[in-house]
Design brief:
Length: about 425
């Protein structure tokens, strides 16, 4: 009986192809929107995971921040709180203590200091750089891809040698793209009327960011010039005394958020217990990724709700056209009932027809949504596909729409009086 009803439904739909297509259009648009949103949402999640992974999935961050209340329990006003003193920052003693106590949970402490930004000029050519002093752990966490020369040697870190790594963007601007020519050359920067000179020992591949697309030209993009942190501190001794944030590189298998909370508690109890204004707070890359994914999930659900409204409008269109179809086929219904068709058979026939319309529209919408989602995901810069369960869910949702919006017209057709139906003109 079901196959016979499907055959009758397809025959009826073929007889009014344009009307059938226009009826399906609302379903197509609604489901295409939902599938495309699922694709984009998954692409964004993949993008976030990739970015967080490249920055260090097990990274943890400790930073000095204003207390909520002082030692007497009084609420601290953020606007009137005293500024940071040298004793409030992370000291060498604190960092060495963390490294020794938690050696089973962290690989090391990633340290970096920023000297400043500079514009390097060579004739008419120029490049913008930000000079950053880093320790070996910090350089390792950046996952630099070297295209010429070598990374900074261990001996250079310990001696504080004036060597540096520059980007291929810098080489393109200053050396015409010849990375080997850049090796051994110097970077001379003037920052706040103080001159810094470093010898280039390696060239790394620069990874473009979203903000870089706003730059007028590639030369206007600021890339990092990496130097040993000891070299930076030797030239600016005060930098060693003003470290407000440190990055801990966690070992495999730990829970970064839980470990960061444990270390922050230890540091607060031992070193900041008597500090009247500041304490150590924490976060982790995992925590940041989860927060960002929650936001993306909320945005995704909001857009899917808009797609669901389009689908609802399409469903109402299906119900409307089914009512019109029943009015046009009143005599046919009367004939079927006169020949012995039961109310249940008539009801099932038109519900099946409504489901076929919704399923065909749903199938077209899903295919269209996947294609549009792939295009949008490419623009985002990450791959994303709707899950199999999501696609099946959309199909079942579409079929449910067919039953829901087809029931009223089908029930109306089933209740027609066969004598009145046969007399209908």
């Amino acid at each position: 009986m079901l196959l016979e009803n499907i055959r009758l439904a397809l025959t009826a739909l073929k007889a009014n192809r344009l009307r059938t297509f226009l009826t399906m259009l609302g379903i197509i648009i609604g489901l295409a929107s939902m599938v495309m949103i699922m694709s984009i949402g998954n692409a964004m999640n993949n993008y976030v995971n990739n970015q967080m992974g490249s920055l260090g999935a097990n990274n943890m961050y400790l930073y000095v921040y204003i207390r909520d209340v002082d030692l007497d329990g009084n609420e601290i006003n953020y606007e009137t709180a005293r500024g940071l003193k040298e004793s409030d920052y992370f000291s060498k003693e604190i960092m060495e203590d963390i490294s020794q106590k938690y050696t089973d949970k962290i690989e090391g402490i990633s340290l970096s200091v920023n000297i400043g930004n500079a514009k390097i000029q060579k004739g008419k050519e120029y490049a913008n750089i930000a000079i950053s002093g880093m320790n070996p752990q910090a350089i390792k966490s950046t996952n630099l891809k070297m295209i010429a020369g070598n990374k900074i040697a261990t001996a250079d870190y310990s001696r504080g040698s004036k060597v540096c790594l520059v980007s291929d963007r810098y080489v393109n601007a200053i050396f015409g793209g010849d990375a080997n020519k850049a090796l051994g050359e110097t970077v001379e920067a003037n920052i706040s009327n103080k001159y810094y000179t470093y010898t280039i020992v390696g060239v790394y591949q620069y990874e473009e960011t979203t903000n870089d697309k706003l730059a007028k030209s590639p030369k206007d993009i600021t890339t990092t010039c990496y130097i040993p942190i000891k070299a930076a501190v030797m030239q600016n001794p005060s930098l060693a005394n003003y470290i407000q944030e440190i990055t801990l590189v966690g070992r495999e298998g730990i829970d970064p958020t839980q470990t960061a909370a444990e270390i922050a508690k230890y540091v607060n109890e031992r070193y900041y217990k008597t500090n009247d204004t500041y304490r150590v707070e924490y976060t982790s890359m995992k925590q940041q990724a989860e927060s960002l994914q929650q936001i993306l999930g909320a945005v995704k659900m909001a857009f899917m709700a808009v797609g669901a409204i389009s689908l609802l409008v399409g469903g109402i269109g299906v119900m409307n056209i089914m009512i019109v179809s029943i009015v046009e086929r009143t005599r046919e219904i009367g004939t079927r009932k006169a020949l012995g068709a039961t109310n249940g058979y008539i009801r099932l026939q038109f519900i099946t027809e409504s489901m076929v319309v919704c399923l065909l529209g749903g199938a077209i919408g899903i295919v269209l949504g996947i294609l549009l989602g792939q295009i949008a995901s490419t623009l985002v810069g990450a791959s994303g596909m709707p899950t199999v369960s999501g696609i099946l869910g959309c199909l079942l949702f579409s079929m449910g729409f067919g039953v829901f919006f087809g029931y009223y017209p089908a029930n109306r057709a089933a209740k027609l009086n066969p004598i009145d139906a046969l007399r209908y003109e």
